[in-house]
Input
Amino acid sequence: MSFQLFRLQPDPTALAPWATRHRLLSPDGDYGYALHALLSEAFGDLAPKPFHYLGGRQGLLAYTAADLEILRLNASLAPPDVARVLGLDHLEARPFPSAWRAGQRLAFEVRVRPVVRSKDGRERDAYLHVVEGTADTGQIAGNGSIAGRTVIYSDWLTQQFAVDGAAQIAEAHLDSFRLTRVLRKAGSGDNGKRKTTNHAGPDAVFKGQLLVGDPTAFNRLLARGVGRHRAFGFGMLLLRPAGSC
Output
């Protein structure tokens, strides 16, 4: 499997007005759905995901298996407002490594939404899921601190990395955490359009070091992303040489 690291520099002065005008800005100011819509408008079925928006200065990073020239061709067909907001005239991409070594140590950063599916099919905060499913609920609920959440979210992340033996965590820490509301579309309203709803949940950034397991499975993990909501700004596994800042 081969793919590219893709970069855009959205215009922060145009992104917020565009998202607001199209009612795609969450109450907490999350741009995930707006960027998802913009990328879909610009690239269609080749819209890169997972992606990570790092803000106005660092821009948007994504992995894509699509050919760069095809992406540029699609981008050239985008409406002027979409091109301006995303900065499509300055699209950049470069080949990303795919030849990994089992046991190779890499530094990583990943923004995730640690949720699980409950029996009724709804998403649940992984922390609350464990709290409500344990016999010692009182003790865990009483430790509703970042430390308590870190343990549960770390276990959740370990399981995500372990799928098909892709990787294991050598060490990791919760770099940031907050509860955020994100926009999603579901069902249809009276006018036939899909309803926009707000979903509250955990929004966490982990940093640490991992060990590559099966190289093929590790490439699949990179291409697929970690957890859910990968098309909306979560799950992109950013890598650096081990020991880098």
Observations:
- The chain has a mean pLDDT of 88.
